[in-house]
């Protein structure tokens, strides 16, 4: 009941996208796994689900590439954002991963978590402003594919972050920008996140943070600063 009342009384609610609203975290994981299975040399450890959660999940794409390479003692030149996916650069690998992701979304569509949709509908009925804050550059594509784009007054994604010079999660800059756009104070706003980096960003920004355990584990989310950890967003309606 405490969690439900907190959401109902929030000035606004800011959602992460992948793994919170839509089941696209699994698509991202598949795309990252395909990328590094193809790229990493056979003498280094293969990319695993633990790598996804510990090194990639919730971070800007380029930071994820750098983290995985560094974990294997590998370095590549950064290159530029316009690098072709075949380029042996950090941006090239990031663009290759993005290509894998968008291929899957266009081919298979996007699944929305039922509990998440129920919460969004409930908040809309209460006229509580909502925003999406995602490191992904594909947030609008995913939301549009999922028929959710018109539900959110503000979208701060990787494209907006680059345009406006906002640091990515775990820095709170993206969440703070969304709160400013909605005209609300962080202390009156709830962040809902499934990634450690996102939970940390919300905590550092002064928000109340609800962690959603989609595989990261309750202990890790609490350690990162989640005030509450739930298994499904529908839990906030009970």
From TrEMBL:
Enzyme nomenclature, EC number:
5.4.2.6
Superkingdom to which the source organism belongs: Bacteria
So what does this thing catalyse? Answer: beta-D-glucose 1-phosphate = beta-D-glucose 6-phosphate
Q: Which NCBIfam families match?
A: HAD-SF-IA-v3, PGMB-YQAB-SF
PANTHER family according to UniProt = 6-PHOSPHOGLUCONATE PHOSPHATASE (PTHR46193), HEXITOL PHOSPHATASE B (PTHR46193:SF18)
The family note in this entry says: Belongs to the HAD-like hydrolase superfamily. CbbY/CbbZ/Gph/YieH family.
Q: What is this protein called?
A: Beta-phosphoglucomutase
The species is Nocardia ignorata
């Amino acid at each position: 009941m405490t969690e439900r009342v907190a959401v109902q009384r929030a000035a606004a609610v800011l959602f992460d996208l992948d793994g919170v609203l839509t089941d696209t975290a699994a698509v991202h994981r598949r795309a990252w796994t395909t990328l590094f299975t193809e790229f990493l040399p056979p003498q280094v450890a293969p990319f695993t689900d633990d790598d996804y959660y510990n090194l990639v999940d919730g971070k800007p794409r380029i930071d994820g590439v750098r983290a995985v390479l560094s974990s294997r003692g590998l370095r590549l030149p950064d290159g530029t954002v316009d690098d072709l996916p075949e380029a042996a650069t950090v941006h090239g690998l990031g663009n290759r991963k993005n290509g894998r992701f968008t291929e899957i979304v266009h081919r298979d569509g996007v699944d929305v978590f039922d509990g998440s949709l129920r919460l969004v509908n409930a908040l809309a009925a209460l006229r509580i402003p909502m925003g999406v804050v995602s490191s992904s550059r594909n947030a609008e594509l995913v939301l549009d594919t999922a028929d959710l784009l018109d539900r959110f007054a503000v979208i701060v994604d990787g494209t907006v972050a680059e345009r406006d010079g906002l640091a990515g999660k775990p820095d709170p800059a993206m969440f703070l920008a969304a709160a400013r756009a909605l005209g609300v104070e962080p202390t009156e706003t709830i962040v809902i996140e499934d990634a450690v980096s996102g939970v940390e960003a919300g905590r550092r920004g002064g928000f109340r943070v609800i962690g959603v355990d989609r595989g990261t584990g309750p202990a890790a989310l609490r350690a990162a600063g989640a005030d509450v950890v739930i298994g499904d967003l529908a839990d906030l309606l009970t």
